[in-house]
Design brief:
Largest sheet: 7 strands, mixed
Strand order of the largest sheet: 5-4-1-6-7-11-10
Shape: globular
Helix content: 25-40%
Distance between the termini: 24 Å
Length: 253
């Protein structure tokens, strides 16, 4: 976006200064939402838990951000059918599914490794769904994106199973990204409740604790968000909106 109006002044120095200012581009805060590309986890049909992308998407849009949707493979992002079942299909998710622009982005997501995270990106938000347990783990592109942003003091955020992408990451000093950090993610008792504990690569709560994270949680299926510096995490689907709000607050400070 460029301001093209010219102003005339007798003072050439003032005129040149005003013209330079008016020709400077306006930059928008840019957030990259990362969703899974996986359609299954060891034979179990899965994908993105749509609410965990839809709710943050609309909050970030309302805040005036440039919102990009990306995934490990790029292209169409699979949606976990369970997230559209009765009791789970939220109003924001329904709105998203009927929003041509939003659903168009989800159907044509950018391939994660095509994005330059060294410039122009202010925050990354890892959305959940059990698909992340298949393609967020040992993912070099995701690891690089997270470590690059964290080292640049940009916001690294994740909700529910999104934090599955964090254990592979390190701080600039080589220690685990979550070490000594207040952090949360899908609770082990919640994983047991959905009976997928034998399919996930690790129990997230246990893994975060193993890596030195100061794991915090609410009762099962209640919202919980941890903010520790530029690392922001949410426990479960119920935490999506609060997690996104915490990102907005951090970007506004």
């Amino acid at each position: 976006i460029l301001f093209l109006r010219r102003y005339c002044f007798c003072d050439d120095t003032v005129s040149a200064t005003i013209l330079l200012y008016c020709q400077s581009p306006i930059t928008m805060t840019k957030v990259v939402l990362v969703a899974t590309s996986a359609t299954e986890l060891k034979g179990h049909a899965t994908g993105l838990w749509i609410e965990e992308l839809a709710a943050p998407y609309y909050q970030f849009k309302k805040a005036g951000y440039d919102v990009v949707i990306a995934s490990p493979a790029g292209g169409a992002v699979p949606i976990d059918a369970g997230s559209m079942a009765e009791g789970f299909f939220t109003e924001e998710a329904k709105k998203f599914m009927h929003d041509a622009e939003a659903f168009g982005q989800l159907s044509h997501s950018l391939k994660l490794d095509s994005i330059d995270f060294t410039t122009g990106v202010d925050a990354i938000f890892l959305c959940g769904g059990h698909g992340t347990c298949a393609d967020f783990v040992e993912n070099a592109a995701l690891k690089s994106a997270i470590e690059t942003l964290y080292a640049s003091d940009k916001i690294v955020s994740a909700v529910c199973h999104g934090p599955t992408g964090l254990p592979q990451c390190n701080k600039p000093d080589g220690t685990s990204l979550v070490k000594d950090k207040s952090v949360t993610g899908f609770k082990d008792s919640e994983e047991m409740a959905v009976q997928l504990q034998d399919l996930v690569p690790f129990m997230l709560e246990a893994k975060l604790k193993e890596q030195g994270g100061k794991y915090e949680c609410a009762d099962d299926w209640n919202s919980k968000v941890c903010v520790d510096g530029n690392l922001i995490t949410g426990q479960n689907p119920q935490s999506s909106e609060e997690c996104a709000a915490a990102v907005i607050s951090a970007l506004s400070s």
